[in-house]
Amino acid sequence: MRIYLQLSPNTEIVPYDYQQTLVGAFHKWLGKNALHDELSLYSLSWLDKGSPRKQGLDFPNGSTFFISAPDPDLLAKLVNGVFKGHQVRWGMEVQEVTIQRTPKLGNKQKFFAQSPILLKRRLEDEKYHKYFFPGDELSDTIMTDILHRKLTQMNLSTDVSLRYDSTYPHPKIKKIKYKGIDIKGALCPVIVEGDPRAVAFAWEVGVGNSTGIGFGALQ
User: Fold this and answer.
1) Which residues of 64-97 are buried (b: 16+ CB within 10 A; e: fewer)?
2) Which of 124, 131, 212, 218 is 20 to 30 A removed from 116 (C-alpha atoms)?
3) pLDDT score of 185 more than 60
4) Distances from the Cα of 10 to the Cαs of 15, 63, 79, 139, in angstroms?
């Protein structure tokens, strides 16, 4: 399922590195939870409809962001939390909540990335994690492995594969600062193919690393 939150226009400029605040609002609405320490079986999007300004983003017509998860209880708890405290920040608050059931997507689907897809792995004999992008040899394998781990945790079939759309002409690499750390992700369509439930699951939990802090959300 997916919850869309319609936000009011901002009254002050929203900084470009706003994602940490959205994650904070998400956990505030959920209340006490252990999701910080778990594999993210949910996905948070970025804000849409923003106009760039010198110091950040402006949302004169408001904005929308969404939270997706296969667990309806988590989303129900989230909605209850929104009703208790609908403020986000920068003068923005939740005006409307819309629920979308997980669509039937079949056994093959091309998804566009709503937020940058983060793929990272520390290779053998290397000290630091390395980022992977469309066209890199291991990107599709890493993306598939991450979804398999989440499917296994939910006791669902892992009969599914993921790959970047190699025909997409101009993938974009975006650098994002989160908690003071520069992170690089890719905006490129992803093709998910396999068991229909696993394909729909990808739409629910997103793809790649760190979907719980706003990476890899799928439209």
Assistant:
1) ebbbbbbeeebbeebeebbeeebebebebebeee
2) 124
3) yes
4) 11, 9, 21, 37
Place of tokens 């759309």: 165
Which amino acid belongs to residue 190? V
Amino acid found at 135: G
The per-residue pLDDT for range 123-169, each reduced to its tens digit, is 777 777 899 999 999 999 999 999 999 999 999 999 999 999 999 99
| Domain at 108-213: CATH architecture | 2-Layer Sandwich (3.30)
Single pTM value for the model:
0.94
The tokens for 135 are 């066209």
CATH number of this structure's domain 2-100 = 3.30.70.1890
Residue 118 has which token pair? 């983060």
Tell me, what's the pLDDT at 31?
Answer: 85
Q: What is the CA radius of gyration of the chain?
A: 17
Ranges in the chain annotated CATH 3.30.70.1900: 108-213
Q: How buried is 7 (Cβ within 10 angstroms: 0-12 exposed, 13-18 middle, 19+ buried)?
A: buried
- List pLDDT tens digits, range 49-106: 999 998 999 999 999 999 999 999 999 999 999 998 899 999 999 999 999 999 999 9
